[in-house]
Amino acid sequence: MARAPQASAEIPLARYNAKRDFSGTAEPQGRLGRKKAKALAFVVQKHWASRLHYDFRLELDGVMLSWAVPKGPSYDPAVKHMAVRVEDHPVSYNRFEGEIPKGHYGAGRVIIWDRGEWTPVGDPHEGLAQGKLVFQLHGEKLAGLWELVRIAKPGDKQEAWLLLKKKGDAWARPSSDYDVVTALPDSVVQTPLGLAEEREGRGEAPSAPDLAKAVKAALPKTLEPQLATLAAAVPPGVDWVVENKFDGYRMLVRLSAGKARLITRNGNDWTAKLRHLAAEVEQLGITRAWLDGEIVVLNEAGVPDFNRLQDAISGARNEDIVFYLFDVPFLGDRDLRAVPLQSRRAVLQGLLGGHEGPRIRFSDAFPAPPAEVLDAACRIGLEGIILKRADSPYVNRRSDSWLKLKCQRRQEFIVLGFTDRSNSANEVGALLLGYHDEQGRLRHAGAVGTGWSSTQGRDLHRQLVKLETKRPAVAPEAPPPSRRGGRSRGQERWVKPQLVVEIAFGEWTPDGHIRHASFRGLREDKPASAITREQALPALAARSAPKVSHPERVIDAASGVTKLDLVRYYESVADWLLPHLRERPVSLVRAPRGIAGQLFFQKHADTAMPGIRQLDVELWPEHEPLLVVDSVEGLVSAAQMNVVEFHTWNSTTAHIDQPDRIVFDLDPGEGVPWAHVQEAAVLTRTMLEELGLHSWLKTSGGKGLHIVVPLKPKIDDAQAKDFAHTVVTHMARTIPQRFVAKSGPANRVGKIFIDYLRNGEGQTTVAAFSARARPGLGVSMPVAWEQLAELKSGAQWTVKTARDHLSLQRGDPWADFWKSRQTVKRWPPKR
User: Is the pTM of this model over 0.90?
Assistant: First the structure.
């Protein structure tokens, strides 16, 4: 007999409150919440207490039913993860993100990993009692149909369940293709590890446009616009430009000899319809260009109104139309499509800077995190937001470098038929909708019977009667559902599948129909042939899953890490690792047969690896071309070619003979306790501070620590090495019982060699966030000096744990590293 569900205490949330001292923890006190909520909330909190786990919570009867899921959710129906039922939590806990202090129950870091709404399938109380709870999730990372199944037996100390994805669900994916906890490890509320500060320090948002990739070209007669891909959540770790998603019509402008033509995304010329806009565009004084934007009509609250736009286009009040411009793919005699987006936007903003007209406006970007902007947009009634990669080119197709996130589900459908309104034979009662499937076949999508006025209903009826046919374009699957508001389903009347409408709706049913639909307007700018079902990826990020040969091959027997695990690790840390690789010669440590086999140290290209560039041979004369890795593609292809470690020079290509850092590698000999390594780091830092130099700390991923001193590139390699050697020699002379200035295992038994040799010409050090080809696959991790005392070893974080560690950090310990401009004064000293 299955164990009964967890009984509620006589006092709601009594178990929750009894376990916590609210005078010392920021967690909310347990108070009963709303018992009858219109929309039930769910939240998944990532919690690193004694060990990492995911707290899965569903709102019901004013509390959050809670399960601890050690391995987190999986989109693979074949994966059944343990979920242990724990005490109910208050609804207010859904907003908790922070640190539970040491000594308190559940001590550790908590982040909000996902959140949204859930819909039970059937009676949830009955499901809990029977031990089988089926439900839909509508979150920022999790979506579709899920199930919790109780497996606990009578007498068990814990109430064990299984969390699994339902088979046949549209969102299901094998774990070999996609692992959601690996791909999306970060909070949906906070930006992890201060990446914005790093970018600011690296100067990735230049004040002047970078037009190095502009190409001289003739102005094309036509231009296909770049289109955005629908996404269910904000992908992490990408430098996004966040713009408003305008509820309007996409519009391009071709300017030739100063004359403007307004072109829809489908290539139709609307200049005659929008002559007021064309005239105002011509006032910009631009002779030759293609501009890209969207036309809207704003309501009294300043929010775009799609119905008002339609009325304005077809009526006499098109002077109310506002044109928001957001891109400039061509200007003058230059093709700007290869220029990074942030630079194209800077050019466009400069073109519009002095324009005072009421109808032409620049589409401003929002500086806040995308998730916050989306939340604000939904609250004030906007359609959603658009995310664009700041470094992306302009491509004439749909692309995942532009993403659209909507406040509610909304897309275009083809009208397959209609019914008359019960009390008005000349007005539409319901529209029968359809779309094309992946094979191009028409499919029914259900019906919509609300959202238009009586005038609009008569206009729709008049247009549809002209398209009426005796037979449906696709065989009807079922009669359309009846609708409220006096509109009866009546007799179906079929039409040629030509008219396109935009519909807002609540969700898709399992049989492919839409539910809770509302009409938003006609779409004259989109052909029926292009209408398909928009399927939002559940935040499967803006990067496609890498194809990995032999993904099951074990790289490290000690940890069980496979080649696929390593590829996914490097893809997940790309935004942290790439700043340490960018424009810096790199050497690669490859392990074709795993780290137990022979390792290869590669400085030059012997096989083609996409995304890995060869540098100009003149940078290092009389040697083969050096390599540089500066893209996600390069990282992934390197891991695909069995690269485990990335080692970099101390100089960049801009100043190849003048290092911009000095590295002190604390390498402990046999018998040196870890406490002595920590002490050595403090002593080395103190020595450097006496010389007026600030330093930053990272684990080596192996036995020791690295101390890095950033510099202005002023001295050469020989001077940098000489300086490092002098520091090390001084340390060895001053504290000979701890340090030695000679390399070699025999010289450093019981002592620490501070390796200064890494500062010579062409010498390298393992990059921050790189894995190490050693048992356990440790990772070189940047840390704050204040964290030194808490470190247990130089390999404290591994490929399995490093990315989760980053997701739980609030501050970047190396944020100021990128801004440092210090110098080694008077070196070598005058004699």
Answer: no
